[in-house]
Write a structure and sequence with these properties.
It is a single chain. This protein has helices at about 5-20, 65-75, 100-115, 125-135, 155-165, 170-175, 180-190, 200-210, 215-225, 240-250, and strands at about 20-30, 30-40, 45, 50, 50-55, 80-85, 90-95, 120-125, 140-150, 155, 225. The protein is of the alpha/beta class. It has a single domain (about 5-40, about 50-240), classed as Alpha/Beta hydrolase fold, catalytic domain (Rossmann fold). Strands 1, 2, 5, 6, 7, 8 and 9 form a 7-stranded mixed beta sheet that branches. Strands 3-4 form a two-stranded antiparallel ribbon. Helix 2 (about 65-75) links the parallel strand 5 and strand 6. The protein is globular and about 50 Å long.
């Protein structure tokens, strides 16, 4: 049977190009290349230069597949950038660092090479953690963060509580499903009224969206920090918001 997602991805990429984006390979350093979809049209509107928005994906899918509808909705009013994190889509690295901070640092350097000086970063799940890390380390670059299904820091105790609630034995089995039924469960957890789809669609998604399993497993292991090392990040962009986030999340770390 023909893989439906393998047919869909070229159509999606063609649609993005018609909408005004194209992929660019940015060599951050030797052996480290980040694929970023960037604007191809004029970056000015009636009010001057367009504001930059960077969409950072999670573990299910690459950048364009994750954010396709949001990109199409915003591309006319904003300068939209959609990176693939390392070991997703067209990005890769030979560097041994698999941390959230490494992803954020390389993204910052990639955006700098594209001339992005100030932006809003939108992150989903793992991408939200990268967005928060980027906001903390590069306050001159990140004006604000929009995060969904994600937190700034994931600790051991919070991971245990999360897995108990979701019904998965390990974080890798949750983020890297290896069967159609497991993927269906993951997508159901992360969606509101997820549509009914034929089982073959989930099988096809596994074939296309979950390669580089060894490297992604290392990413999962690196994102969880010991409780003793936890310190809530400080964000110079919005200290009141950071304080509010701490009040909301602090019971989870006690």
């Amino acid at each position: 049977m023909v893989n439906t997602l393998k047919l869909y991805k070229p159509l999606l990429q063609a649609t993005m190009k018609l909408a005004g984006l194209r992929p660019r390979k940015i060599e951050v350093e030797p052996g480290t290349v980040m694929n970023i979809w960037v604007p191809t049209r004029s970056q000015k509107n009636a009010n001057g230069k367009k504001s930059a928005v960077v969409f950072v994906h999670g573990f299910v899918g690459d950048g364009i597949l994750t954010w396709q509808f949001q990109v199409l909705a915003l591309v006319r009013k904003y300068a939209v950038y959609v990176p693939d994190l390392f070991f997703f889509g067209g990005s890769y690295t030979s560097d041994g660092h698999q941390t959230v901070g490494f992803q954020a640092e390389c993204l910052a350097r990639g955006l700098a090479k594209l001339g992005v000086q100030r932006c809003t970063v939108v992150g989903l799940s793992y991408g939200a953690m990268v967005a928060f890390s980027l906001a903390e380390s590069r306050p001159e670059l990140v004006e604000s963060v929009v995060a969904t299904c994600g937190i700034p820091v994931l600790t051991e105790s919070l991971t245990r509580e999360l897995l108990e609630r979701l019904g998965f034995p390990t974080l890798s089995e949750f983020l890297l499903p290896d069967s159609a039924s497991a993927l269906k469960k993951v997508l159901g957890i992360g969606s509101f009224h997820f549509p009914r789809l034929p089982k073959c669609v989930f099988r096809h998604a596994l074939e296309v969206m979950f390669d580089c399993r060894k490297e992604r497993t290392e990413l999962v292991e690196a994102m969880v920090i010991p409780d003793k090392d936890f310190a809530f990040p400080e964000y110079s962009q919005a200290p009141r918001m950071a304080h509010l986030q701490w009040r909301i999340l602090s019971p989870l770390y006690q």
